[in-house]
Structures are given as structure tokens and as C-alpha cells.
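Lesson 9: reading folded outputs for more than one chain in a single document. The general rule is that every protein is listed as its sequence immediately followed by its C-alpha cells, and records are never interleaved. Here is the first one.
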Amino acid sequence: MSALRYRFHTRELGEYDIHYRALRDRNQYEDLGGEAEAVGISPASWPLFGVVWQAGEVLAKLMVSYEIGSRRILEVGCGVGLASLLLNKRHANITATDIHPAARRNLQFNTRLNNDRDIPFLRTAWEDPRLEQAGLFDLIIASDVLFEPDHADKLSAFIDRYAEARCEVVLVDGGRGLGPRFTRRMQALGYQHRQLLGIDPLSNPESYKGKIQRYRKG
């Protein structure tokens, strides 16, 4: 197994320069100790956490001036965590979560790359019981996380387990066809839905078909 290869990037997001390390391409794989296999991550899907997708760029751009105040924020399926890095630069109360065992290491590498504090991280699957020590969140964000038919059900239930009684959810839907089902599940849980104005990603905007969805309860 060859060593992982990375590329380093700097993104100008509003007044912030965010530096991050991402996998060189989607042909990378390194599952030391079989951690990823143990949680159901195949070799084909292993590298997906380590690249920044267009929807992730949109979420980061949206968070440049999004109202955060003192709210506790959770990024779900953070991957490289571009939005979390941006919010951390804004001194937001941000926590990140991902099922991938390599996500924490890469995220903390990137926080140090930006000379910022470490970002609290939860490694958990959407179907796992709620981690009581994590607490609840006022704003939950995610981007391009709906890939499989059961993801809409699992993600909506996961979000509701970690949501405060009054909570806002922002999902940048990557346009893979599961967004409407997710919206129906969120509405069934008592969330009001609104689609926000679109934002172009930083890369290849002409090919982007995603939408920004917002859900609120309480």
C-alpha cells in the first residue's frame, strides 16, 4: 500500500483565507488496522471524505456571513471540513462529525494549518445512539451527504436527535435526487422548509446543480 498523496489549497472566502490539505485524487486508500472496513466503508468510498465537493464550497461561502451569534453549530459529514474551518476562523462554537476514521486527523491537521484552535469532533454513524456528552445544537449544517436511498431517513433522524427544541438546519443538497425525500422526512418531524437563493461553487459553477435547503423548528 503506497503512502497517501495530498494537495494543499488556499480558498479566499470573504475576508478569510482558509488553508487545507485534501487528498490528491479519489484513487487514494489507506485503512490501517481496518478501521474503515469495520464501519462499512469500502475501498471505493474510502477517499470520498478527503476531497472538497462543490456543495462543500457552497456551504463554506454561505457561512462567511451567516448569522451565528453564540449558537452551538454542528457540521454533519464534515469530510475535509471547509465550512467548519471557516466557522472556526470566525470563532464560532463549531463541532464537526463524520463516520470516517481518518476525518478527525485530517481536520485537526487543517486547523493547525490555519493557526486556529482544534475543532471538537464526534465520530459516529447516523444510526448510532446520541452521544450524551455532545449536547444539543442550535444550528446544524451539511453538504452533499445524501448518496443512498436510506440516507434521507437516517440523516433526518440523526439531526433531530442532536437538535435543540429550537433549531435551524442548513443542507446544501448536491442534487443526487434524494433531497425531496429528506425534506418530507424533516417536515414530518416538525421542521418548516424553505429553499434559499443559490450560490455558485468556487470550482466549475457551470456544472453545479445543487440547492440550498433550510429547515427550522421551534
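And here is the second record, again sequence then C-alpha cells.
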Amino acid sequence: MVVVAQMPVKQILAKEKMMAQLKNMVHILAVLMLSALVSACAGNRYPPAPSTAASPDYRYVIGPLDTVNVVVWRNPELSGAVAVRPDGRISTPLVEDIQALGRNPVELARDLEKALAKYIRDPQVTVMVTNFAGSSSEQIRIVGEAAKPQAIPYRQNMTVLDVMILVGGLTDFADGNRAVLVRGAEQNKQYSVRLSDLVRRGDISANVDVRPGDVLIIPQSWF
């Protein structure tokens, strides 16, 4: 007579539970490996951002919500600080409506001189921008996992490090080395930027120039 040993029910259930847990662990490891592979591929998807010399003849372009100080020589009653309206125009004494958007301060001063020439002899006008917002084509936009995502006015010789200082650095969830710089001046060409190396590790070789109209996109870490 052959006696068949039977495994207790508890042992069978424990074995099945262990196998299920093992399958789950294998599945999780596979997902993590795939995520790491995709992340690595994404990091190499775009060429590194170039560090090119800034144009020496760059001039600030006036934008909506800027404040400009108009000084008319020997005519203090015609001088004063005025805000650029959302439509891009300003109003000053004797000149009720004149385009400021898209003009640099020197160009706006010459336009005001032409307008004022109808009322005073040989007007001499100086325009100084005292509150900067910049036109949309001149702003640097930072979106995603920055501490303070925002649009900031471009200034000459500005770099990614300057931008990160202004937005307060990266969040704890940022994957800075997968950041992308979209350059509008180059038909929205995309470049890879190593923000984690720059901000968290102090690798200054990761610092690159930015240009008017750039968009810096900072993704969230996968895990």
C-alpha cells in the first residue's frame, strides 16, 4: 500500500503567496529598468545647449507693463514716468498715444521728438526704462519643477545659472539633467541642459548662455 504524503493547506497557501510576491517583485524590477532605460534615452534625445558669445549690440526692447521715464530737456512739465499699457502704447503730455512695444529706448525717444516737434522747437528727449517686464519675444520662460516658475526679462550675457538663481533653484522632485531648453530664435530647436549637475553639484561646465525668447522646461523625476 502506497501512502501519498499531502502538504498541509497552510503550507500550500503560503507557497502560493510567496510565488505571487515574487512575480510582483519581478514586475516592479522590470518597470524600473524600463523607466531607467527610457529616461537615459530621453536624456540623450537632444544635443547639449551651446555656449555662444552674446551679441555686443544687444538693446533692450520695451514690452507691455514696463515703466519708462521720459525726460524732455528744459521741459519738466512734459517729463515724467509712464507705464506701457497692455496694448504696447504710452501717453505723455502733448502726445496722447504712441507705440512703445517693440521699440528700444533710443528709438522711442526719437519717435517722441518727432511727435513733440509739432509743439516745441528742437525737442530733445531721453527715455529710460525703470521697471522691466520685457516683450514676450524677449522674456525667458521657466516652466515645470522650478521653485518659482515664471517669465523673466532677458538681460545681456544672461546664463542658465542666472535664470536658476532668479527662480529659486530646483524643487526636490526635479529631474534637472533632463531639462530642455527650447530656443525660439532657432525655430524652436531643443537642447539638453544639465541643471542638476549645475545647481546641485556645482559643475560650472553645465552653465550655458540663454537667449531672448528661450523656454526652459524642467521635468519631474520618474522615481
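What the second record shows: Strands lie at 67-72, 80-83, 89-92, 95-99, 125-131, 139-144, 150-153, 179-183, 189-193, 215-218.
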